[in-house]
Amino acid sequence: MEIAVTSNGGRAVRDSKNPGGPSLHFTGEGWRAFLRGVEGGAFDS
Is the pTM of this model over 0.85? Predict the structure, then answer.
């Protein structure tokens, strides 16, 4: 996985094994909410 800071302070995420494939784009607040979810266990299975 690769994560890049975008010009507006957000983040772009892509699969480093498929760099020409799709990517996810987060606003700055969206990225912070995602990180809070990860830290809080929201994505644990």
Answer: no
